[in-house]
Amino acid sequence: MSATSTHPTLDELRAEALEWGRKPRRRGSWYVTEHMVRAMRAYGWTIIVGALGQPIMYLLGLAVGLAALIQAPIVDHGQEVSYLVFVAPALLVTAAIAVASEEMTYPVMAGFKWRRYFYGFNASPLGSPQIANGVIAGAAARMFVAVAAYYLFIWMFGAVPSPSTGWIAIFAGVAAGLAFGIPLMAYAGSIEDDKGQFALVQRFLFMPMFLFSGTFYPLETLPGWLQWIGWISPLWHGAQIGRVATYGADVDAGMLTVHVAYLLVLCVVGYLWGRRVFTERLAK
Amino acid sequence: MPEPVISAQNLVKAYKVKGKPDFLAVDGLSFEVAPGESFGLLGPNGAGKSTTMKMIGAVSTRTSGDLSILGLDPDQYGPEIRSRLGVVPQQDNLDGELNARENLYIYGRYFGLPGKVCQEKADELLAFAQLEDKAKSKVDQLSGGMKRRLTIARGLINDPRILLLDEPTTGLDPQARHVLWDRLFRLKERGTTLVLTTHYMDEAEQLCDRLIVVDKGRIMAEGTPASLIREHSSREVLEVRFGSDRNAQVAGQLGAVGDRVEVLPDRILIYTENGEAALERVTAAGLTPITSLVRRSSLEDVFLRLTGRSLIE
User: Fold this and answer.
1) pLDDT at B310
2) What is the mean pLDDT of each run of 10 residues along chain A (284 residues)?
3) What residue ranges do the domains of chain A occupy?
4) How far is residue B7's CA from residue B33's CA, in Å, rounded to a whole number?
5) Burial category of B226 from C-beta neighbours within 10 Å (exposed 0-12, middle 13-18, buried 19 and up)
6) CA B55 to CA B34: how far, in whole Å?
7) CB neighbours of A224 closer than 8 A, spacing ≥ 6?
8) Which chain regions cross the lipid bilayer (chain A) (predicted)?
């Protein structure tokens, strides 16, 4: 069909494009978030069962089992608290980190390689930073649900002596989850072929972090040469903030600032890395 | 002549290669596409067609040259340009976690369309793609042809001014290809500007008003399918086979039979205005081919003439 005079002029087309581009430029990140959350519904049951089942199992195991064995209270910075009260904030943070290790690995690999849907996003008005934002926001939404459910359970198990500030632990959990997850997302985006890297992350990053980050006992209990694991682990920093929130752990203001700043730095550095990885890969 | 909706001048895309000079995937392409036109890029794999499409699609930046899409520079107005394009990529990138209808719905959301509009458009496009009964099916349950149609439908969710199709029918069986061509004809009739890449000459002949033949990042020829054939080939082609070990030897004796002779590994092509007459001359010379075929010249012959290579290698 040859061109006819019924076609709009170039000026009209340009004006139309400028108008159409306005909304996606402003809200594109939320459109990607909406997609990611919708896609989670496909495995919605796993999410719900995980969010409810995991806390129940851990708390029953620790509160009814291990705590019965550990009769003596835990001494944390000279403060005596019951074992469950000590452990609960760290478990809550672990739940967020577990979500990060799922939502910020395989869906990223799927988006770039297995399903390639990130390329589909990018062919629409959405830009690569918005795609990264949407992945982060989608994962954060799931983290929030998992951590809030966890908080409810630890409160019911009587492990929140200071409920007036305790809720802050929910945000500490999400922050720690993102501090672990955002750099992981950048790494996942940079992987060309899946050679079991995510399984290695699970075994050699997540597990040691879980075991050596002052989760089950104060970090100081460990010999000095093992304490560094806790220091670099977002889990320990998040858990310490959570402990201040749930039972007023005696952490001085300087250290509290370090905990918050460390999580923020990981998020920011991971984000800058992730944006670059997404932009370069999508433009290839 | 209305102003072009796509205008490329000396478009270059270079990739860095370690220890070697830059690789020029696109090496100085210049072309224009008028509104409502159906424009094709024909060339073999690796000719630079997909790279050109990515630059037109405002997802890959150019190394040098000028490019204007809908009157805007893609380096600066990527999201604005993409908001008025429809894109059908070479590899399907539908979301397998969502069903067919959800894939359309969510894609509409990316353009900032309200939820209700997305619902209506999704139903309308499912009908256009003849997939109404597959609305609730997960993408993984669809056949290759259905996925392609769904991807095309998705590309139309924003009523695009330009639809970019990168190898739209590669990997489809003949029936699925014809269904897809039919859908594309309808779009053409509605006045949508189509830009497509293909290495199938029949597809280019069927769908394109005008095309460029691209090889190694450069334009080899430009024109309508008919004018390209007229200019670069004869009216008819006689194909004869003498067996792979004899073709080259016999070709030497066929020089006077037609205007031009091309020897391929499996057959000899004789370019001539009258194929039947040429065949008579072959047999009169005492040569008996194992098989013979007279056909019209195609874009494949144009490509062979221009590059010395066949399109599908």
Assistant:
1) 65
2) 65 96 96 92 86 82 76 77 90 93 93 93 95 97 94 92 95 98 96 87 84 87 88 96 94 95 98 97 89
3) 29-283
4) 7
5) exposed
6) 18
7) none
8) 43-69, 81-100, 139-160, 166-188, 253-274
| Confidence (pLDDT) at A2 | 45
Domains of chain B in start order, with CATH, are: 6-224 (3.40.50.300), 234-296 (3.30.70.920)
The distance of A194 to chain B (nearest Cα, Å) reads: 19
Residues 6+ apart with CB under 8 A from A85: A159, A160, A161, A246, A247
pLDDT of amino acid B164: 96
Contacts of B104 in chain A (CB under 8 A): none
Decide: A230 and A214 in contact? Cβ < 8 Å.
yes
SS3 category, A205: helix
Decide if B164 contacts B88 (C-beta within 8 A): yes
Q: Which residues of A touch B102 (CB under 8 A)?
A: 38
User: Reduced to 3 states, what is the DSSP secondary structure of residue B38?
Assistant: strand
pLDDT score for A3: 43
- SS3 at position B213: strand
Q: What is the pLDDT of residue B312?
A: 54
Contact A116 B36 (CB under 8 A): no
pLDDT at residue A50, as a whole number: 83
Assess contact for B67 and B55: CB atoms under 8 A. Answer: yes
Indicate the residue of B3, B37, B107 with minimum beta-carbon distance to A9.
Answer: B3
For A124, which of B82, B161, B191 is closest by C-beta distance? B82
What does the alpha-carbon distance between residue B188 and residue B182 come to, in Å, rounded to a whole number? Answer: 10
CB contact under 8 A, B71 and A7: no
Look-up: residue for tokens 């001085």?
A: A252
Closest CA to A74 of A245, A230, A217, A239: A217
Of B36, B83, B110, the CB nearest to A3: B36
DSSP assignment of B150-181 equals HHHHHHTTT--SEEEEESTTTT--HHHHHHHH
DSSP string, B75-130: HHHHHHHHTTEEEE-SS----TTSBHHHHHHHHHHHTT--HHHHHHHHHHHHHHTT
| ipTM, 2 dp | 0.86
For B1, name the nearest residue in chain A, comparing CA atoms only: A3
A121 contacts in B (CB within 8 Å)?
110
**In this structure, what are the phi and psi dihedrals at residue B268, rounded to the nearest 5 degrees?**
-115, 135
Euclidean distance between CA atoms A72 and A74, whole angstroms: 7
Contact A2 B37 (CB under 8 A): yes
Task: Report CB contact under 8 Å: B80, A28.
Answer: no
For residues A118 and A112, the answer to whether their CB atoms sit within 8 Å is: yes
